[in-house]
Design a protein that fits this description.
With 191 residues, the chain is mostly helical. It has two domains: 41 residues, Arc Repressor Mutant, subunit A (Orthogonal Bundle), CATH 1.10.10; 128 residues, Tetracycline Repressor, domain 2, CATH 1.10.357. It has ten helices and no strands. α1 crosses α4 and α4 crosses α7. The protein is globular.
Length: 191
């Protein structure tokens, strides 16, 4: 008689991510993940709870691939580094990456990137209510660009144009979050 495979949350999430990478996010069901692991769907519930928790785990996996930059970097360099790393994650997982626009970071591990961005923005001296709003806007811009890119929206453009567009987006976002110098207004920030 064969030995029953060891099952844990990490293995379930790895299987779900691999399935999404191969067959698209729509293929990720409790049944499909269980089949991939050679267990019954009921065996998964102990480790991921339900389908919503499985999707939260996929968000966690995607955001877990983003390296947090060293705190010695300037706030702007940290934000840019996280944005570039998030884009690289989108390129590694184009079929599942759009999930980041549909689901919030619900687990502690998933929230670490958002929290790093929030901390960096607060470090700049922003008011607390402005920090949360700025994080939402900046994150949505980076995620939206990357989802558009990996979903094929920009397929009629050479990669060099897409790369230049992303760098321009980062320049615009940097201007958006930079505290204005005395006597400068929004036009000076985006000029």
């Amino acid at each position: 008689m064969g030995r029953r495979p060891l099952l844990d949350r990490a293995g379930v999430l790895d299987a779900a991510l691999a399935l999404a990478d191969e067959s698209g996010l729509g293929a990720v069901t409790m049944h499909a993940v269980a089949t991939r692991l050679g267990v019954t769907p009921m065996a998964l519930y102990r480790h991921v709870g339900d389908k919503a928790a499985l999707l939260d785990g996929l968000v966690e996996r995607l955001l877990g691939e983003v390296e947090l930059p060293p705190v010695e970097l300037t706030w702007a360099d940290r934000l840019v580094a996280m944005a570039r790393d998030l884009r690289r994650t989108g390129h590694r997982h184009p079929a599942v990456f759009p999930l980041l626009l549909a689901r919030p970071a619900a687990t502690d591990e998933a929230a670490r990137v958002r929290d790093a961005v929030l901390h960096t923005l607060a470090e700049m001296g922003m008011e607390s209510e402005e920090v949360a709003q700025t994080e939402r806007l900046v994150s949505t811009a980076v995620l939206g660009f990357t989802v558009s890119e990996v979903s094929g929206r920009f397929r009629n453009h050479p990669q060099s144009v897409i790369d230049a567009d992303f760098e321009r987006l980062l320049t615009l976002l940097r201007g958006f979050v930079e505290p204005p110098s005395p006597g400068s207004g929004p036009a000076a920030q985006f000029g």
